[in-house]
Each structure stands twice: as C-alpha cells, then as structure tokens.
Amino acid sequence: MVVEIKALGGLELTEDLLRFCRVRIVEPLERIFDREGPALEIELSDLNGPKGGIDKRCRITYTMPRTRPITIREESDDIYKAIDGAARRFRRQIIRRKGWKLVRTRYPTKYFTAEQEHRMQPGNPASPADITLEEDSLAAREARMREREREREREGYTPAPTTR
Fold first, then answer.
1. Same domain, yes or no, for 19 and 66?
2. Which domain holds residue 145?
C-alpha cells in the first residue's frame, strides 16, 4: 500500500504529526486491509493560517483497485482532533466496505434458503434414505435390509429355519 502524508497551507509536518497519523490511520488500516494495490493519501491543512478558528482540516483519500475511492474530510480547531475524527469515520467506512465485499449481495435468496434447508446437519450421518430422492425408494429399502442383516451377523444372530 502506498501511503502519502502531506501538509498544506502553512502547516508544518512534524514527527509527532507523522507518528499520530501512522498510529491512528495507517496501522489500523493495515490490520484490516493490507495489499499492494491501494493508495492512501492523508492531507493535513491549515485554511486560515494564523487567524485561528475552526480551520484545521484532515482529508483522507483511499483508492482501491476496481472500486470507488473513499474520501473523508474532517475540520476542527485542533489538527489532532481533526485527525482523530477523520480516523474514526474512515475506519467505519473501511469496515463497512469490506463487509460489502464479503457478503454476496446478488446471490438469489430463494436458492440460498433452499440450500440451507437441504444441507445435512453436522453430526448426522447420511443414510441411504437421505441420499436418494424418494424417502422410501426400492434402493433405499434394499440398502436398509442389507444393513440390518450385517448388524445381525455381527451380533451372532442366526435366523430360525422356516417350515411350511
């Protein structure tokens, strides 16, 4: 990820500001989404210069391949407050965007629910009746009969001879 931090409008980019930006914005983003393609641009500016007022701005622009860029802008009377507010909003947007990518929004609901209904529950072994389409098909009945005969042979059961 390419990270670019700029200071504009008479604002001096100090080591403390760089460290604060890295801790609040860059490191949490790397934990959530760390790849080579994206570009992160942090722009810190002082709009009115020495006049004062609510004029410190932090603008974060995050560009990912094949998606729309995310731009967050926060203004405050203190540059650290502006960075902190923008970082919180940016983190929420990134988590939301990543959640959208993980959820299949175009997957038809009816197919998903049908798959859930027919999916085997964990721990339940499949029987021939579950595998065949009809519950009491001839193949399932024959398989159950063979299984019963095997169980009886393991137990040592011998059928009594039949007379007519």
1. yes
2. 127-155
Q: Tell me the pLDDT of the chain (164 aa) as tens digits.
A: 888 999 888 888 899 999 999 999 988 888 777 777 788 999 999 887 777 677 889 999 998 877 789 999 999 988 999 999 999 999 888 888 776 665 555 555 666 666 666 665 565 666 655 554 555 566 777 888 899 888 888 887 666 666 65
**Helix extents (H) in 2-161:** 15-21, 27-32, 79-102, 109-118, 128-131, 138-155
CATH number at residue 79: 3.30.160.100
Nearest C-alpha neighbor of 48 from the set 59, 57, 61: 57
Cα separation, 120 vs 133, whole angstroms? 14
Q: Into how many domains does the chain fold? A: 2
